Amino acid sequence: MSPTLLKTWGISVALAVLATVALLTIRPFIGTLAFAPDQGFNWYYWKRPDPDAISRASAWGAYVLHQLFIWGLIAWAQAHRDQLRDRNRLHPVNWIALGGTAFFVGLHYLQTALFYDGLGQDLPVITSQGSVILLLVIVLLMEAPRRGLFFGTGKGWFAAIKPLLIRYHGYYFAWAITFTYWYHPMETTAGHLLGFLYTFLLFLQAAFIFTRVHSNRWWTFALEASVLIHGVTVALVAGQEFWTMFFFGFLVLIVVTQMHGLGLSRRTRWTIAGASVAATVVVYAQKGWGFLNEVIRIPAIDYFLVLVIGGAILLGRRLARRVT
Fold it and tell me: Which of 37, 181, 298, 323 is 20 to 30 Å from 253 by CA-CA measure?
């Protein structure tokens, strides 16, 4: 990675952190809203109680504009990929993406300050959570040929579909990130702030398309693993006792799959695995062994979806070849 590219990436990450801190200044504009009582599963709590056509149009209109912008950049970059062969420098499309990201951060700030509305006004929370879960599953599929699925094994299972995922994953990822971004108003709870920081970093990942930043294994690992921090924080802020499910569930994914693509030594990997098992024993010895099944809930869902989605794509690919 060239020094200029590395410097630009570092400055971009620092600006993402500053933008997250700056979200605290929105509190005087949005005041204190009287939210409707929590209605349980699939209910999104942070939405204005008196939405109207203008507030809804502000959220949906901004979302559509942002979505078309990022999809358009991806389509252009793929159509002109021969002009983007040098992965050690930024191209005009990267600068446009970075500038567009800054613009839409400012637009969301303004839209929240004026209207405090989001896509969550009209859609259940599972749509936002599900889009991100599926994104993480597709990452597991894409990276499987490089790092495997289970302790470095399974590298060949889905290798045949990696080119397809590499070529088209950007469109889905761009939708999942942009949809989730406009689903939430810019609230200032710890969970929201971390969520927006995570989203800003994912937008940066998209902005550095066709550069070495985009494929750097430590950077992509950090983006994958950050969901552990975000999930735990959201659960703690909400006063939910099953924060342990998020912590140890995503930790299992790190130990079983994600850390095996980093080039770590065998000793280091065994040390991480041993420390994870020890932490699990300590926590659940106090919480109660009856809750131990929490540890496998998230990994079980993710690996099940990997096998189902990966298998479906392989089957579809085989049927398409027979037809053609």
Answer: 181
Rounded Cα gap, residues 86 and 179, in angstroms: 31
Give tens-digit pLDDT for 155-208.
Answer: 999 999 999 999 999 999 999 999 999 999 999 988 899 999 999 999 999 999
Q: How buried is 200 (Cβ within 10 angstroms: 0-12 exposed, 13-18 middle, 19+ buried)?
A: buried
Q: How far is 94 from 152, CA to CA, in rounded Å?
A: 33
Residues comprising the chain, all counted:
324
Q: Residues near 235 by Cβ (< 8 Å), separated by ≥ 6?
A: 242, 243, 245, 246
- List helix spans (H) across the chain: 3-22, 27-30, 53-79, 92-115, 125-147, 162-183, 190-207, 212-215, 217-237, 243-256, 266-287, 294-323
SS3 150: strand
- Nearest CA to 131 among 202, 69, 189, 53? 202
Interatomic CA distance for residues 231 and 62, integer angstroms: 26
Backbone angles phi, psi at 38, to 5 degrees: -60, 125
Report pLDDT for 306: 96
Provide the pLDDT confidence category of residue 235 given band limits of 50, 70 and 90: confident
Helix (H, G, I), strand (E, B) or coil at 153: strand
Q: What angle do CA 184, 216, 260 make, to 5 degrees?
A: 95
Report the 10 Å Cβ neighbour count for 290.
8
d(CA 147, CA 152): 5
Contact status, residue 83 vs residue 91, Cβ threshold 8 Å:
yes
CA distance 193 to 92: 30
pLDDT digits (tens, 9 = 90+) for 106-144: 999 999 999 999 999 999 989 998 999 999 999 999 999
